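Journal club prep, shared notes

We agreed each person brings one worked example of a sequence with its structure written out as tokens. Mine is DEP domain-containing protein. I'm keeping it raw so we can talk through how to read the token line rather than staring at a rendered picture. Sequence first:
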Amino acid sequence: MAVNSTIPAINISGNTVPPPSVSIDNLTPAIAQCFVIILTGYLAGRLNLISSSQGKGIGTFVSTFSLPALLFKNMCILNFGQVDWYFLAGILIAKSAVFLFVATVTLVAKRPLNFGYAGLFGIFVTQSNDFALGYPILQALYEESHPEYLKYIYLIAPISIVFLNPIGFTMLEIQKRKTIIAEASSSSEGQRSTSMLSMGFHVIKGVITNPIVFMTLIGIVGNFIFKENIPYILSNILDVLGNAFSATALFYLGLSMVGKIQGQIGIGLIVPLLLIGVKALILPLVTWEIVSALEGLSGKNGTEPDAKSMFGFLYGTFPTAPSVFLYASHYSTAADFVAFGMVVGTFLSAPLMFVSAKMMTVVVVSELDYKSLLVETSFDTSIISIVSSVWVILILILSRRARSIPHQFLISLIFCHLLSCVGMVLYDGRESHKKSWIHYLQFSMILIGTLGARCWSAILAVTLYFLHCRSLCFVLRLKWILYITGFGIPVFCTGMLYLLGTHHMEDEIDPAFHYGTDQSLLSLFILLLCTIVIIVSLILKQRNHRDYVRVPTRNPTDEEDIEETFSDSQSLQRSGRKVKGQRHRAKISKCREKDSKNNHASTCVNCDQGCVGESIEDIVPYPTETENLLSDTNSSRSSSSDDVSQTENLETCTYGTCSREQRRKCAGLLRSYHSTTLSVQTEDTDEVMVQQPRRKSSDAYQTSRFIVLLVIQQFSMFVGLFLCMWRLFNKGVSGIYVEIQFLDTVFNYGQGFVILAVFGFDTKFIVMPFIKRWRRFVYGVEVIHLPNKSDLDDETIHVCDQFVKYHKEHCASQIVKDHSYHLREYKQVFTGIEMCDWLIEVGLAHDRGEAVAYGKTLLIGQIICHVTKEHNFHDMPYFYKFVDSEES
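Then the structure, token by token:
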């Protein structure tokens, strides 16, 4: 057994320093112990060694008996005179601020308005897994050096449950009542009042009867009754129950993860990843800043001024508690998001907790001790980013997206990032008091590139909003203004810094910060501005996701203009056919009926209102996509011209109130634009349906990928914001400060790797060719080929015959339906997940493993098949269909 002792501090300068405030010897074993037990519980559930009902029994024991006993004992023996109330206030303020931020953003962005999502997401990012996972980590770190810190966990835990969770529960109850009232529109006002009273009573009752809150209150009472000394017999009983908590809670945590991440792919990952990022990154940073500020105000810093703030940062990295998933399931609100976030967040927290705890052992005498290491990290990261960025540029050129919108602006972002990386590679890391042209060259490349990448991220967010809620024509008209803004602001700011700033590098660890406080203020301003622009743009885009704005009517002259514009724009299409005006007249007549009161003349003040009349899903992809996909080959030709009219309608300002001249200008811009981007490749390569004339798909914009990129960029900006504020308002340094400095460096110079992960693996040019070559290498063919029925074994034939005879018809009626993906309509199909769910539901399989095996048997027996015959049966959202007897 390892001896628990403190290790010497890392001290490059060789100065004598005091020992660190935490013990590190048992950290790695503690983290390994926790996650091995979690993995054991997960495997026990996955292999069906423990059923769901048995798992619920374990959960009941943990939450109702073991944890309350542990809480009661520790609250009874706690010395409240030694409690740092400033620290607890800092934790409360930090959690409240993050809760309010997440809830507010959710309320503003979510459409339709949903209080339940806001409350649940607020709980998700503030309720930590304090006891099952957090306590063992803290025990390994502080048991010898600061045993009093372990007691804080029993006071911190009720903060969420007593103060914040009731707010979330109230919002969940409000949404629940709104849903009930909406379903029963005949409810009277008196009934609504009763419902609100019932809601308040329900929330208060739930808080008071919560075992953690109840036993905390009883423990405080017991503290005064027993005077911090529990009777021996009662102490032994509580010890037995409390000692059973750690292993049982971790095992149950793993057990509760089974089946929580099914079907979470693609754009659906954005929300849970956002929540994970806020919980694992934003909450620790906010806690670090606020606790540090309050400790400074209290004047109780003592010999370790940063110990409490570092403890707060480590506490913030603890993952979300599993109980949040129970709340989501109880209220039937965002259960999939919460489940995925809980599972992934738990495992992602392990390296973050380890690194943070490791950095807490570092006593920083001078931050310059780490300057050479930071320069090396910046250099290595820049090299990787340069290679990644060049690769992405080649992919964009090969896929012919480089000239399209918004990929043109992505190229600009990559260029700025390359500029900063090349500047960092050229930087030698040596301090120079004499400013030469080499200094100006290196620093200009670094600063212009860094600020430019931030500005272009904001411009990309604005562009996505305009593309979806105005029109492509509007973006094309603003293109050069955006270019001037994206490159002009960084150049102007760099020039002003040269003129007004003071150069000094004596006390600065970051090689990119040559101008001290002046540069910190500049960076803070740019980061705040870009953060506001990105958040507001994404929120507005999301708000318009389902908004409906009436289309203003037009006079007959405008109708003729529209027809003329469409006919003029038709030369862009390969078919060269002209648009028939009758269809569009009919649409305008319908618009007149809906808005007969607004019969005003058209002006160009409100041009390009692409959102008008259609929701965001109808704009990209286009309004009649489903109708066109469902049309047969005989009608494809007649619908083609209508598709083109809709395409031009959405790309120009024809849904707005623009003049004839303005629409002609838009048609000219679009003609020029399409002449260079007409053959842009998309990822929709599945040849499943009858070939139809295709319109430009929403995949050409790759909106979901850009959103993922902007989300990651925003987290990078948050780190930079906190670092700038720390430089300006807190001159002290610590191991956590050095950790954040390294994290900011990796974010700054590692953007190329992020862009590579998002855009560098185009399915058409990278993934699919690799899969086909792999299949050719392993199977000798590039598609799945099934054996003949005559070659099947008796067991497979029997299973297939039994399924066809007794289950096929019922199964088809339950799960077969039309699905859409990448602008294609797949008729009469089902997903692998739906098939597995049905097999388990009817008892043909006991778990998902058996369901997959059963599905593979049906596929081998040619009862079902993948729609493109490219995949075997998997418990994934692949599309399958039943094989007709003629096909088999």
